[in-house]
Amino acid sequence: MSVPPMSDQELHELAGKLAALGEVRGTPARDPVNEPMIRHWLDAMGDTNPAYLEKGVAPPAMAQVWTMPGARGPANERSPVNDLMGALDASGYPGVVATNCEQTYHRYVRIGERLTPATRLTDLAGPKRTALGVGYFATWQVTWYDEADEPVAGMLFRVLKFRPAAREQASQERAAYPLQPAINQDTAYFWEGVQQGELRIQTCADCGLHRHPPGPLCPACRSADRSYRVASGHGILYSYVVHHHPPVPGRETPFVVGVVELPEGVRIVGNVVDCPIEEVAIGMPLRVTYRRMDDRLVLPMWAPGEA
Amino acid sequence: MSGHGPSGDGAGLGGHGRPGGGAGLGGRAAIAGIGATEFSKRSGRSELRLAAEAVLSALDDAGLSPRDVDGMVTYTQDANQEIAVARETGIGELTFFSRVEYGGGAACGTVVHAAMAVATGMAHTVVCYRAFNERSGRRFGRPDSRLTGEPTSQGLEMSWHVPFGLMTPAAWVAMFARRYMHVYNATSEDFGRVAVAMRRHAATNPAAWFHGRPITLEDHQASRWIAEPLHLLDCCQESDGAVALVVTSAERARDLRTSPAVITAAAQGSGAGQMMMTSYYRDDMTTLPEMSTVARHLWATSGLSPEDIQTAILYDHFTPFVLTQLEELGFCGRGEAPDFLKDGSIELDGALPINPHGGQLGEAYIHGMNGIAEAVRQIRGTAANQLRDVRNVLVTAGTGVPTSGLILSAE
């Protein structure tokens, strides 16, 4: 599933919605509690206590083992945690590290019992600056139930989902483009779109108004329910300047900046490229193209296009 | 607060135009003093010192003492706080202080605020000032990558333009100018005629930086490109200096040292879809709706019309917007400014002399405040290039931004 990038505020809103779902039941374990798996586990852990196999019970710390999805199982089954992890991945926080795991055991489980997990998202905190990078702490609670619907074990689990600091370091090493846009939750969708090769035009989810530059409220109907459409990428040059002087940081003069009229009904500013300056003219058809300026920024630009 | 009515009948318009068309300041306040430093490229003094010198000069001109001042107004962009200027000049207690936003659009707005304060009794004597070392200090024409800065509303607005290198006032204006040329078949020479007229006026104004240095249309065409379609000589100079004005009630101004310039009408204006210099997303980009708002307010509240104006001080940081202003103010029709300019009508002996002091292109760039001082001189009859029979002068402020305007009148 492709998830759109979210702002800090939107991530918190999503976490709030997912937490409000309460405890969500997962898929029952594929296999019942069984002797071979207990034996592997005891071997792997170096646990020589014979009591488990003699009594036919599993070590309590194996709780998580019984309901793991497996390498080829339905790993992406929808759950509050998976939904939130997906959103964090898409919003630029792909790194993950577990920071807390606290297990509670209600009773031993016996060979032959089949467990079912249930997950409750409890908290999202951040963004916070950590040694690994900026990220969010997500916390959830898993409870394992037996076939009588009684809890047998529980676990509080917390991870840090982060934007690896290594990436930030790399961008400092590479010459950073000096003309960075300011971005907030009203405009992030646009800049995230151009990173993915999409020219996104804000659309009111209620009345359908297209708007650029965008803003938090629809000026036509007051709706705060914002969406976007991906523009066709065609445009017509409405006006332009050829900048000669003074020098502009990060740019070689002369260069062309234009106001481009889109068939979607909005205008947008961008550079006109791949065209001799003397051939630039109001009314010329253009097609959007994307230029990476540095590790952080992609700018939409405009090249001569088909009429 | 005086025997003079609220709708302009105190302005003593001498039969020129019908005063008092609607609500407004209607002649209750007047500019009673003007002052300035020299205009230079390197003042060698702090901006605070420039402000204080101009304020004291304006008070001397009015025949008032710093102790008479109880209100102060400047631009939000001014680096000198009211209280600092008050301390330097011996101004004591203040009952009114205000700042006006949007760059040079604030110029006439300072007088709007001062006149409102006087009309409402918030203050009796208000000083408006603007002081900077715009040439030797921070230059507005220099690209500044901090324009986008924090995600404030203005930082976000700039972020649709600055990353593309569209980040100088000349380039912002050039985008409008190119569209205007396209729609109305205007040419660079049409813009050049404004520059030539301004430099011709400055040539005979001893206070002007370009005193004695007129240019020809050929000079304009040969000057280097800054941001096509703008040549160097389409762009106003950069200056160090300060200008101050003293605003008080029209009644009181009558008893002061110089004859008052009555504030017949005063207005601020911002348009729908307004941005700072980059309102590219509305209408057809050949107009200045914010100036239209100001013009409608000035004409409606004064009861005057363009025929009643003997000279206009039009904000001329870049030549193309002088054409647009002529159209928005009703001195000519939409798209007719190029023809209006061709017969020399904006020169000293023309039908509507514009900026007899040489404007910001010729005299100095003091963010529009020096133009207000020139309007006062024209009304007093003391200007270097004095016109005859000046009764009403229209003044405008910065273009491409939320702006302001005045009609000043002789008693």
UniProtKB/TrEMBL annotation, chain A:
It holds the Pfam family OB_ChsH2_C. One of its GO terms (molecular function) is DNA binding. Residues 27-153 form the FAS1-like dehydratase domain. It comes from the Bacteria. Residues 229-290 form the ChsH2 C-terminal OB-fold domain. Residues 191-224 form the ChsH2 rubredoxin-like zinc ribbon domain. Keywords: DNA-binding. InterPro entries: ChsH2_C, ChsH2_Znr, FAS1-like_DH_region, HotDog_dom_sf, NA-bd_OB-fold, Thioester_dehydratase-like. PANTHER family: BLR3430 PROTEIN (PTHR34075:SF5). This is DNA-binding protein. It comes from Nonomuraea phyllanthi.
TrEMBL record, chain B:
InterPro entries: Thiolase, Thiolase-like, Thiolase_C_2, Thiolase_N. Residues 43-250 form the Thiolase N-terminal domain. Pfam families: Thiolase_C_1, Thiolase_N. Residues 281-401 form the Thiolase C-terminal domain. One of its GO terms (molecular function) is acyltransferase activity, transferring groups other than amino-acyl groups. This is Lipid-transfer protein. The lineage of its organism: Bacteria, Bacillati, Actinomycetota, Actinomycetes, Streptosporangiales.
